[in-house]
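re: that complex we talked abt at group meeting.

here r the seqs, copy pasted straight from the sheet so there may be weird spacing, ignore it
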Amino acid sequence: MRGETIVAIATPGGRGAVGVVRISGPAAFAVATALCGKLPPPRQAALRSLRDADGEPLDEALVLVFTGPHSFTGEDVVELQGHGAPVLMEGIVKAACEAGARRAGPGEFTQRAYLNDKLDLAQAEAVADLVAASSLSAARAARASLAGVFSTQVTALAEALLDLRVQIEGSLDFSDEDVDWLARGEVLPRLHTVREDLEQLRGEAARGARLAEGLTVVLAGAPNSGKSTLLNRLCGEDLAIVTDVPGTTRDPLVHDLLLDGMPLRLVDTAGLRETEDRVEREGVARSYRRMQEADVVLQLLDDTAEPEPPPELAPGQQLLRVRNKCDLSGRPAGARTDGSVRICARDGQGIEALLDAIRALAGLQQSEPPFSARARHLQALSDAGTALARAAAALDAREDLDIAAAELAAAHTALGRITGGADNEDLLGAIFSRFCIGK
Ligand SMILES: Nc1nc2c(ncn2[C@@H]2O[C@H](COP(=O)(O)OP(=O)(O)OP(=O)(O)O)[C@@H](O)[C@H]2O)c(=O)[nH]1
Ligand SMILES: [Mg+2]
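got the structure back, here u go
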């Protein structure tokens, strides 16, 4: 596959002043020569007329040549910067294919950069995060990951772990007393430090992932509690139908917005109750399905009524209880000591406190995340943390050193999955298929 030369339009679909077609691979120069004749020297732009195999003019384009390994992919690369008309760019791609290239799949340029050791896996993922960034803070975090800020810390942890493994595995044949000394005197404190560093990195990665991947908040609760009113208030638009008839909302209504640069997905749902009405029942079933997909279930309660019990949550989900209609209950709006928030969705009191509570749940109240990350990285970090906890427990309990050694090895492997994984085709496929074509 890597022996093939790939071509794709690198600029977004639609018309643009300039459109870039990128060619990468061993035959990149031959393919480009077939289109435009003599190539300019590397890294020097030159204007060329592009023609197809029949000599038909395709476009006038600036041609830029990068000789591997000094290119984004690490291979020979040619960039053709033509006029950004989709038909012209498509014509260039077609002619390049006739000259020996093939169309690139999603993320294939970045995948090659990874396979050619230009980037590690976390950096390659940051390329996609940078392209997809919906705010400056998300772009800054993705750029930091691309520059290796996250990878460097993962690698440092992996190296500390390796040292520990060397020490433990080198002592597997020692006597019990030596082991005792080793465990208590040296290894345990160092393991403790690694666990603390890992936990801190996981916290930062969680915030980085949150900023990139966003938060889904599902508004749930009894009919008439004011969910649709709250959705409209948070969106600043009259989107959802609001009436005093319980059971107004049937279909879940999704609205995306940005909260301090973090994508925030709000979902208004049908009020939860037993009902004979077939349509409403389907609405309620959909509410429960949406609640399963939530990062945060915002349970809206009527502050004038007895509070209902909290809904059942899946592991990892967070609950935010919000008491609405404080204008009617006469109680003060704002954050409460039990973590809930009292608001008046109709008039807007307490909404800032509610947004603060959401910021806190998203971990956005602290400083900006130092780098971007993904759910996949968090999983790897928490797998590593679990293995380290088991290793510490084994050392503490003076169990056989083999057990601690195996757990440390497992933690090491888990960390390696963040930056590596070249051996795992499925993983690479899953990661790069989410890229856009041309990246
Ligand atoms: N006084 C007062 N009335 C409110 C407030 N919020 C909502 N309401 C009223 O409560 C009624 C129900 O509001 P909705 O937003 O439709 O409630 P819902 O939770 O979406 O209801 P369903 O869609 O039926 O589940 C409407 O008459 C709203 O005007 C509030 O803060 N104060
Ligand atoms: Mg509603």
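couple things i noticed - The CA atoms of residues 92 and 308 lie 63 Å apart. The chain has three domains: 6-119, 123-211+372-432, 216-362.
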